[in-house]
Amino acid sequence: MATATLSPEHKFDWNPLKLLRPRRALHAKDSSNVNDDERKAGVSRYAVIVLNQPLSDNLDLVKTLWDHACIRVAADGGANRLYHVGGQRGDTSFDALDVIIGDLDSLAEDTRHYYESRNNTNPGGQQTRIIRDPDQESTDFGKAVAYIRAWHQEQQKVQGGDDTPLDIVAVGGLGGRVDQALSQIHHLYLFQAGGDEQSESQGEMAYAAGRVYLFSGHSLTFLLRAGRHRIQVRNTAQDEKDDRDENNEVFGKHVGILPIGELSRITTRGLEWDVTDWETRFGGRVSTSNHILPETEVVEVETTRDVVWTMALRGVEGS
């Protein structure tokens, strides 16, 4: 089989460290001092969706994501998960929830009461909108993404001059039943549909509406569109010089590159078992349980078709 030719325009840089270890230089001020108006004005450049999966693993990283998000949305029963680790225990860390959206068949009464009561007792402060969308042709995850993207478009109109897309981090991604996990991977493709791989504009269109990440207590997962990708997995030497108190090790060593749906040919650099022009497909060869080398700061992946990249978080068993 002939190898597909990759256009040099199809290049993508990734720095997921900005999500999980936001440095002071990336934000106007510490998250504890960032008020809701400043969040919505764009102090941070991503939104958080909480899915209906347990939040007990890596809760500190969940709080980091939460604190620096510009909008926070619970997909139906995801609000229950926030309440169970927060309000139910007298912890207000997850009170600043902007929206609960979905068909609301999973929203518990005590969770609804908690957020409705907080709205009533804090009329001038952060309010939580509860939106019932009964559409059975879309998932609660999809409804949350649609809400965030519509909200972001409205913010762009109000602020003017800023057409930067808004990335989304789905907390609880890849948890639960196998069909739920596969559905969430399906949504990575659905939410980041771009131009045809032969299109000259694919490099611009591939993530035109923003990038979507699936965060679980064990891993971070995202879609690599056909092209060349540079994924920063550790702070560079200059980053460490600029901000010496940062924890440099966010990710564990294990990574996987999964060719969901179609055959691809991949080339990698920075892994223990690098490959060159390597055919990968389900039912054939698949790169799983590969390792990031200790000295690697940036992993490079070239792929002829869309593939899913997943990497373990530090401290997870086996990572």
Automatic annotation (TrEMBL):
<dbReference type="InterPro" id="IPR016966">
    <property type="entry name" value="Thiamin_pyrophosphokinase_euk"/>
</dbReference>
<dbReference type="InterPro" id="IPR036371">
    <property type="entry name" value="TPK_B1-bd_sf"/>
</dbReference>
<keyword id="KW-0547">Nucleotide-binding</keyword>
<protein>
    <recommendedName>
        <fullName>Thiamine pyrophosphokinase</fullName>
        <ecNumber>2.7.6.2</ecNumber>
    </recommendedName>
</protein>
<keyword id="KW-0808">Transferase</keyword>
<dbReference type="InterPro" id="IPR006282">
    <property type="entry name" value="Thi_PPkinase"/>
</dbReference>
<feature type="domain" description="Thiamin pyrophosphokinase thiamin-binding">
    <location>
        <begin position="227"/>
        <end position="307"/>
    </location>
</feature>
<comment type="similarity">
    <text>Belongs to the thiamine pyrophosphokinase family.</text>
</comment>
<dbReference type="Pfam" id="PF04265">
    <property type="entry name" value="TPK_B1_binding"/>
</dbReference>
<dbReference type="Pfam" id="PF04263">
    <property type="entry name" value="TPK_catalytic"/>
</dbReference>
<dbReference type="InterPro" id="IPR036759">
    <property type="entry name" value="TPK_catalytic_sf"/>
</dbReference>
<keyword id="KW-0418">Kinase</keyword>
<comment type="pathway">
    <text>Cofactor biosynthesis; thiamine diphosphate biosynthesis; thiamine diphosphate from thiamine: step 1/1.</text>
</comment>
<dbReference type="InterPro" id="IPR007373">
    <property type="entry name" value="Thiamin_PyroPKinase_B1-bd"/>
</dbReference>
<keyword id="KW-0067">ATP-binding</keyword>
<dbReference type="InterPro" id="IPR007371">
    <property type="entry name" value="TPK_catalytic"/>
</dbReference>
